[in-house]
Amino acid sequence: MMPSRTTRNPSAEGRRRQSPLVGFSQILAGTAVGQIVTFLAMPVLSRLYAPELFGVLTFALSIVAVLVPVALLGFDQAVLLPRADSSVTPIATAGVSSLAVVCCILACLVLWSPLTSTIDSATRPFLAWSLPILLFVTGVVSLLAQLAIRAGRYGSIGHRNTAQSIAITASQFAFINTTRFSGFNGLVTGTLIGTSLGAVLLSPYVKRYAHSFTLRQWFQSVRRYWRFPLIFAPMTSLTLLAQQAPVLFVIYWFGVSDGGQIGMAERIVAVPLALVGMAVSSVFTGEISQAIRTDERHMVRIYLKTSMWLGVASGLVGLGLFFLAPIVLPLFLGTGWQGAAQIAQAMAIVATTRMLASPVRSVFRVLERARILVTIELSRAAFLVITIAFATTSDLDLLASLTLIFIALAVGDLISWFCGLVVVWQANSGVATIRR
Q1: What does 188-256 look like in DSSP terms, one character per residue?
Q2: Where are the transmembrane segments (predicted)?
Q3: Which residues contact 36 (CB under 8 A, 6 or more apart)?
C-alpha cells in the first residue's frame, strides 16, 4: 500500500491489504476448485436424485437468496464503509439480530402459510427447520465475507469457497440413501452442512471486529446507515427476486419437477458465473469502498476495467451455452434432464448480461445512491411482472415463457450497468458527493 493511504486512514486501512490482482487470483482459484468439484459431481447426483428433489433444493436456495439481504437489513454491505473498525461492531450486531428474528418468522411461515403450497406436505416439516437454519448460516457467511473484504483479505474468501463447495458435495453424496424417505432432502441438508463449514472458516473475523459499544453508539450507527435497511436491502432483495423469478414462477406455475429442471440448468450456468462473478465482485467492492474511504478518485477506471474483462468472459459463456448446451448437457446429466439442456440454452442471453452487470451492481450501495437504485429496481420489477403476466395469460409453454422472462431480465441488467457507470462518473468527478 502507498504510505499516503496509511496516513489518511490509520485505523483499518493502515493494515496490510492484498493487492486487487492477488485477491482476484486467490478468490478465482478457490472458487475454481469448488466449482470443478460441483461440476464433476453433477452427472452423478443427477442420476441419483430425482428432479423433484432438485426442485425442493432450488426452492430453498431461491427463498434464502431473496431473504438474506432483508434479513440482515443490508448491514452486511454497510460494514465496508466506516473508517474505524470499532464502528463496524454495532452495525454487524444489528444485522445478526435481525437475521435471527427473520429466521423464526420463516419457520412459522413454512408451517402455516401458502409459501410451500407446491411442495409435498411430507417435506414441509423438514423445511420448517432446515430452511430457517440455512437462511441464518447463509446470512452469517455473507456478513463475515464482507468483513474479510473490508480487511482486504481476499484469499480467505477463496479458501472458504473451496471448502464450502467440497463439503456441500460430499454431504450430498453422504445422504444419497435418504432418497427413499419422503420427508427428508439430502440435497438441502448437504447444502446446510457445507455452508455451516464456510461460516466456521470465516469466523476469525469476528474477533478482529469485536469491540464493545453502548446502546447510544448502536442507535447512532443504525441512524447513520439508515439507507441500507430502508432502501438498499429491499432493493437488493428485489434484484435477487427478479433473478429468482424464473425458478419460482416455474415451481408455482408448472410444478416442482419442472422446477428441478430449471434448477439444474441454473446450477450449470452458475459455474462460470460463480467462478468469475464472485471473484470480480469481491475485489471490485473492496477496491471501490477503499477508494471512498481514502477519498481517491479513480473509480471510473476501476468500473470500466472491470467491465471490460467481464464483457469478454460473459460473451464466451453466452456463446458456449447457446451452441453447446443442447448437445452436451443431455449426455452429461443423463436421461430425464432434456428440459434442463433446453432451458440452459435459453439462458444464454441472461447469463451474458448477468455476468457483466451483477459484479459491479454493488456500486449503488457503496456510493449510497438510493434514488437511482430504487428507480432501476422498481422498473425492472414492473417489466418482469408484465412479462410473467403475459406468459401466464397467453398460456405459453415452459420454454417460451422462460425465454420471455430471460429477455426481460437481460434488458434490466444492461440498464443497471449503464446507470452504474453514470453514478461512478458523477462520484468520480465530484458532481455528486458520496456523503449527502
Answers
A1: HHHHHHHHHHHHHHHTHHHHHT-----HHHHHHHHHHTTHIIIIIHHHHHHHHHHHHHHHHHHHHHT-H
A2: 21-41, 53-75, 87-114, 126-149, 184-206, 227-255, 267-288, 309-333, 339-360, 372-392, 398-425
A3: none
Domain boundary assignment for the chain = 16-429
| 180 burial type by CB count under 10 A (0-12 exposed, 13-18 middle, 19+ buried) | exposed
Q: Could you write out the three-class secondary structure of 346-393?
A: HCHHHHHHHHHHHHHCCHHHHCCCHHHHHHHHHHHHHHHHHHHHHHHH
Rounded Cα distance, 222 and 90, in Å: 8
**Is there a contact between 72 and 99 (Cβ–Cβ < 8 Å)?**
yes
Cell reading at 417 = 450497468
Each residue's pLDDT tens digit, 139-149:
999 999 988 88
317: closest CA among 356, 263, 291?
356
Query: Residues 359, 281: contact at Cβ < 8 Å?
Result: yes
pLDDT digits (tens, 9 = 90+) for 42-86: 999 999 999 999 999 999 999 999 999 999 999 988 888 887 777
Residue-wise pLDDT for 322-336, tens only, equals: 999 999 999 999 888
**Residue 344 neighbours by CB under 8 Å, 6+ apart:** 265, 268, 269, 321, 325, 329
Q: Which of 148, 150, 143, 149 is nearest to 72 (CA)?
A: 143
The grid coordinates of residue 161 equal: 469457497
Query: How far, in whole angstroms, is CA 321 from its chain's centroid?
Result: 21
Q: What residue type is 221 in one-letter code?
A: S
CA dihedral 307, 234, 158, 203 (to 10 degrees): 150
Other beta carbons within 10 angstroms of residue 235's beta carbon come to 25
C-beta of residue 348 within 8 angstroms of C-beta of residue 270: no
